[in-house]
Design a protein that fits this description.
The chain has about 260 residues and is of the alpha+beta class. The protein has helices at about 25-40, 70-80, 135-145, 195-205, 215-220, and strands at about 1-10, 45, 55-65, 85-95, 105-115, 130, 150, 165-180, 180-190, 235-245. The relative contact order is 0.20.
Length: about 260
């Protein structure tokens, strides 16, 4: 049995997310259907993490195991030959059995894109169309509260019963402005369900003047599932890049990803 690591990009606009839900409209189902069409085998695509409906990816990673005779280059050519136009495998390489797309992750980067200008019909599916003036300096100040290792119970959708450990470490949050487009870039090893979108929604509330950085500190420290009332729209979120440990082996911990 051989293991292949794949980097895939996709436009999530027309999909219910990465994870298979037996509705034939997830990224995973589309990829697995192509793998089966090529090999005549049931092959599971194991991703670095789930992305939700309408969320996009430039650098999602998955692996699959097979004894089918194709090498990496031929797998690459064959898979892309059958995938729809809004899903594209960027690279495939054969890796050691110790590599695991999910458990061997070193860091992930998610970007959230906000259009601060006039409503743009061509960007409706690819950026949050913000109708409000935002104080970006205040947003940046508040974002620094989230950097480092914290209990993010207040900023995720995972129940404590299902997921008792909600401590995660964010290594950086960076803001980029290009004309009317504001991008907030998050880097860390793992993110809980809806975590990036809930953090972003909170920063937007700060930018609107409806929350202060002091309010954000209190929200983080209280560890209360009811304090964050907002979840930023999914179409502004992109999984940009995933980095892996060298000589990666399967880790013992599992982290739920947005």
């Amino acid at each position: 049995m051989r293991r292949f690591k794949c980097i895939v990009s996709y436009d999530g606009s027309n999909y219910i997310g990465w994870q298979s839900q037996c509705r034939n409209n997830s990224i995973q189902e589309k990829i697995e259907a192509v793998l089966k069409r090529i090999s005549k085998q049931d092959i599971k695509a194991v991703a670095a993490g789930r992305t939700d409906a309408k969320v996009h990816a430039y650098g999602q990673v998955f692996h699959f195991d097979t004894d089918f005779y194709l090498d990496a280059a031929r797998w690459h050519w064959a898979i892309n030959g059958y995938l729809p136009d809004d899903i594209r495998v960027k690279s495939i390489e054969e890796v050691k059995d110790g590599f695991h797309a999910r458990f061997s992750v070193k860091s992930k980067q998610y970007d959230y894109v906000i259009n601060l200008g006039e409503y743009d019909v061509c960007k409706v599916n690819y950026a949050y169309q913000c109708r409000h003036h935002l104080d970006v300096d205040q947003m940046e100040e508040a974002s620094r509260i989230f950097v480092g290792k914290h209990d993010f119970s207040s900023f995720c959708a995972n129940s404590l019963e299902q997921w008792p450990n909600q401590i995660r470490e964010i290594s950086s949050i960076t803001f980029y402005r290009d004309g009317d487009i504001l991008t907030i870039s998050y880097k860390g090893k793992g993110f809980l369900r809806y975590m990036v979108r809930m953090l972003t929604a909170t920063l937007i509330e700060v930018g609107r003047g409806r929350l202060t950085p002091a309010d954000v500190v209190e929200m983080l420290e209280v560890k209360d599932k009811d304090v964050c009332k907002h979840n930023a729209e999914p179409q502004g979120l992109y999984l940009i890049k995933i980095e892996y440990e060298e000589n990666a082996k399967s880790a013992q911990t599992i982290e739920e990803n947005d």
